[in-house]
Amino acid sequence: MEQFVQQFLNGLTVGSGYALVALGYTMVYGVLKLINFAHGDLFMLGAYLALSTTLTLLAAGVATPWVVVLAAFAASMSLVGLTGVFIERTAYRPLRRATRLAPVVSALGAAVVIQNGVMLAYGANYQVFPEGLVAVGGWRVAGMTIPLFRVAMLVVSLCLMGILYLFVQRTTVGAAIRAVSLDHDTARLMGIDVDRIIMLVFLIGPALGAAAGIMIGLYYRQIHFTMGWVYGLKAFTAAILGGIGNIPGAMVGGMILGLFETLAAGYISSAWKDAFAFLLLIAILVVRPTGLLGERVAEKL
Amino acid sequence: MRKILVLAVVAVLAVSVVACAQKPKEKPTIKIGVQEALTGDWAYEGQGILNAVNLLAEQVNSAGGLLDGRKVEIIPGDNKSDAKESALSAQKLINSGVIAVIGSYGSTVTEAAQKLYDEKGIVHIATASTATRLTEHGYKRFFRICSSDDRQGLCAADLIVNKLGLKKVAIIHDNTTYAKGLADWTKKYLEERGANIVFFDALTPKEKDYTAILTRVKAAQPEVWYYTGYYPEAALLVRQAADIGLKAQFMTGDASNNPEFVRLAGVEYAKGALITTPPQPADLPYPEAKKFLEDYKAKFGKYPESIWSLMGADAFRVLVEAIKQTNSDDPGKIADYLHNQLKNFPGITGPIEGFDERGERKGSTYEVYTVNDQGQIVPYKK
Amino acid sequence: MLRVPPKFWAGLVIAVALVYPWVVNDYWVDVMNFCGIYMLLGLSLNIIVGYAGLFNLGHAAFYAVGAYTTAILSTRFGVSTLVLLPVAALAAAAFAYAISRPIIHLRGDYLCVVTIGFGEIVRIALINNPGGLTGGVNGIIGIPRPSLGPLAIRTVDGYYYFILALVVLSVWAMRRLEASRIGRAWTCIREDETAAEAMGIDTASLKLLAFVLGAAGAGIAGNVYASKMTLIAPESFNFWESCVMFSIVVLGGAGSIPGVIVASLGMAALPELFREFARARLLVFGLAMVLMMIFRPQGLWPSTHWRRQVEREREPGVTPTPAVGSPSR
């Protein structure tokens, strides 16, 4: 029983990370019908930029951990958001009227560029976040150790997701985003500046991914330029699982994927873990072809 | 438009024709290939090995070369840590007219190239490929300068049962050729010595969160747990083990014998870990080793960090010795010399007693190291 | 533009191809060998992505099935790898049928992620070595060269002609397919699936057929790869390989046979020419992909098959509407 609870908590933390990155995928897909394969690498970029910020600040003599961490979040999220906008402008916007396939290859190419750019800039080695930035240790509850930071990660993720959800559901801008997800032309007719909205989506989505990357970096401490590829793939799976284009879907999908993966690794076999995750996805899609919560994009007839 | 493209295709072909019009001609230099991962996952190790060989080649050449003044030419080949690329780069080296190849780090890439070299009769010395399978194919000109996984497994088993007196063991690997091989051998030798394997499974490398598998390990209550994979995961494992309260003795294999392991894990978590490994460069007592370390520092600005660079250096040195003693650059004669006549050659990594008929280096280079409280990897003294 | 029939250019290319091994050294012939295998893979994926318009990013799974079938049957039962060529194709096709059937009704991007999933599941299964069949992460070694009695293909040149023959055969087969009713039906499905259904086309069966035929082609490529390398390991069949194949099809021009050929040449041969740029090589590669798509999203050599059809059938006085590719869905 204790093992189950421990694994459950493990799964929640893993899942919250996936959920944050999945949000980026789902939002971009919602407005552009595009699978942004470069998104996983933006997550990785977030971690690296946070590292640079942290190291610079520490070298400059800033000693208070929470100041450093907050600065890292602010700097990294905004820079990655801007990178997202840049990628949209250069690699995706010219292809809006082209076939469905071209943007995918462009996205793959962008992913390769980001990955290798980071490798050339930072080196091929694993990079490490400095010690002492985040609280280590945990609570001992009923024979289990619950690491403090994992709970923090979970809470922060949920907060960010909550804020995003409220933003999209309750504000005018959010309504505009939802409108653009449904139909570009009609949205334009309604007076919405579609390009601006898309830009905004590319600002927010990658920023969220960056937040996930920063937390991963702070907690696990080691980062590598290849870490975005697989993580992004899993997050994309989570987005599809929940229903692509559907924001609550991405959150649910991320959590479920994380939980399922961890429990499968914990109880069946760690070696087959990823296979189980994909099998879950396939099983759900066979039964519910548009994902668990259904998609929020209009099917063009 | 289409016509332009066809012409472009023809042009590409023509360019490649011209680019490789220099077919093998006269060979005034003695060409030795170094096939390593110069890019890709293990570039860190591959480049170190190449540096080591280049250093020694320079020394040989400035001392007058070999076989009456012929210079040694080192030709690098990049296998990008990938099997298919390994086959291609092997082909390229063969085409350059090498008589011998040193390489590679990583058993799978070495294996991909082995057969090609064997078909052309080129001497192939593996520097950092420990899968036992490599010497079981019967390739007459293949040698291995490092020790193989079964020796390391033996070392691990001895450590656990004989030196530490522990019985309940958990083993984790990562499903790569090297790690799984080491895990299997360790399991075998442990069972022979009456130990009890309470856990045996693989994790997926390149991920971050291993709490799932660690929770299972903890539930199995081992007295010692052995991770046979590579240092990035090892670092994550020690940290997360502490997080979930897994307190058993941690052991890892030679792929973690690397300052990166301590750096990534943090001294607090890494200290006390035991590592089965060939000795560290700085701990080698041999005069040849000390001289090599100083020369390396003089040329590259820092000491070589990895024992594999020294293995590469030794591979080159035995080749040079063989060429000198047989007074020829014929691969057949070199191979023959290495099999039958090389005895007690003073190697940088220790005295090389010789190679057996399968090409294995005789004896074992494995020892036990530990991470001390300052985060240094030092020999383990019980 | 010169009024030279396309057949002339095809003939020229084949002539150059035949002479190639005589002019260059073994290494460059070998590069072309791997390039040829990519051509086979690209052509087979072209059926799925280019003709039927299905999003397949897990093609490496079929490739793997072909390669491993060949490897297992030849190393355990001593069957000649040449004989196993059709067997590999069949195995891959059967596998494709089995896994595609439950998911064939999925829409575009969902299908995409499911194909990725299948690719990964296959790769993980290969690594974990169920039943001791696949040799786990070490893969399978000692795969014999293709042979028929005393004749065997052992040399680099020998492989070159073997692969060239297979590529020519594939191109021929695909041209026939393109022009057939099946090809036209696929085009219909690709352009507008709902309309195709309304026309009475059995979209599910035809999509399945695309997967099956594409898989068969990949199976053949897998067989050749296995016997050429004589050892195969799961790491050669990962997601990135599927991405490379997919990119070859799109960069060449989805649905276009010459496009796939040219793109394969580019993908496989050009990195060899730029080996010296070692560390930045992949970066340049990624950049090239993005630029290619921005400046020429229809691919290097877009399919003109249908445009020519329309032009041939055009009535005087009617302006044809371009039907290349399908706009945003």
In a nutshell, what does this entry contain?
With 301 residues, chain A is mainly alpha-helical.
Structure description:
The complex is a heterotrimer of chains A (301), B (382) and C (329). Chain A has 301 residues and is mainly α. Chain A has one domain: ABC transporter involved in vitamin B12 uptake, BtuC. Chain A has eleven helices and four strands; from the N terminus they run ααααβββααααβααα. In chain A, the strands form two sheets. In chain A, strands 1-4 form a two-stranded antiparallel sheet. In chain A, a hairpin with a 2-residue loop joins strand 2 and strand 3. The termini of chain A are far apart. Chain B is α/β, with parallel strands linked by helices. Chain B has two domains: 187 residues, 3-Layer(aba) Sandwich (Rossmann fold); 128 residues, Rossmann fold. Chain B has a seven-stranded mixed β-sheet, sandwiched between helices. In chain B, a hairpin with a 5-residue loop joins strand 13 and strand 14. In chain B, helix 3 packs parallel to helix 4, helix 8 runs parallel beside helix 9 and helix 12 packs across helix 13. Chain B starts with a helix and ends with a strand. About 3% of the residues of chain B have low confidence. By secondary structure, chain C is mostly helical. Chain C has a domain of 214 residues. In chain C, 68% of the residues lie in helices and 2% in strands. Chain C is built from 13 helices and four strands. In chain C, strands 1-4 form a two-stranded antiparallel sheet. Chain C has a two-stranded antiparallel ribbon with strand order 2-3. In chain C, helix 2 packs antiparallel against helix 11, helix 4 crosses helix 9 and helix 10 packs across helix 11. The two termini of chain C are 35 Å apart. Chains A and C meet through helix 4, helix 9 and helix 11 of A and helix 5, helix 10 and helix 12 of C.
